[in-house]
């Protein structure tokens, strides 16, 4: 992109992010960082292949929407790959999450029952890794914890998961039934994680 045009575009990107719900700009897996897909700049550039799936914007998906599992136009695969040992932490780093967006945060997984590249998240059978809602003793939601932790959320991949390919889903929920999920794709092989393919959507 032309430097002059880029200089005009970047301030608009920050305005757009501030007006929206935010998105995951980075994923840390086993201590290694992988840039996320930026819906406001990457479509105008030619970024290297990302382990993170493209997203169309930083909006939300309403409860009951047919695309709830993978956001609008988000149920697509990616060839970028990262390797992860069993039991590693996966941290989803959000670029922005408004202070008035209160609600639970959860992480789920589901077997792709084969190749995740051709498996639709709408057909997934999810099982929970972690979930947090309202903390009455602190009068805070899980979203407050996410912001306090540098707008990030960390989950642990099970160390004893059966071999195969899986989806892992980190999701924020607003009390207004607006959802901003993050979808990731990975493969377990004999107790070790290999070929983790991440697909982030909102």
From TrEMBL:
Catalytic activity: [(1->4)-beta-D-glucosyl]n+m + reduced acceptor + O2 = 4-dehydro-beta-D-glucosyl-[(1->4)-beta-D-glucosyl]n-1 + [(1->4)-beta-D-glucosyl]m + acceptor + H2O
UniProt-recorded Gene Ontology molecular function terms: metal ion binding; monooxygenase activity
Name used for this protein in its record: lytic cellulose monooxygenase (C4-dehydrogenating)
Lineage: Eukaryota, Fungi, Dikarya, Basidiomycota, Agaricomycotina
Organism: Coprinopsis cinerea (strain Okayama-7 / 130 / ATCC MYA-4618 / FGSC 9003)
Residue ranges of domain Auxiliary Activity family 9 catalytic in the record: 21-172
InterPro entries: AA9, AA9_LPMO
EC code(s) of this entry: 1.14.99.56
UniProtKB keywords: Carbohydrate metabolism, Cellulose degradation, Copper, Disulfide bond, Metal-binding, Monooxygenase, Oxidoreductase, Polysaccharide degradation, Secreted, Signal
Primary residence: secreted
Signal sequence annotation: 1-20
Record flagged with keyword Ribonucleoprotein: no
Assigned GO CC terms: extracellular region
Pfam families from the UniProt entry: AA9
Keyword Disulfide bond attached: yes
Cofactor(s) of this protein: Cu(2+)
Biological process (GO), any one: cellulose catabolic process
Family in the record: Belongs to the polysaccharide monooxygenase AA9 family.
Subcellular location: Secreted
Taxonomic superkingdom: Eukaryota
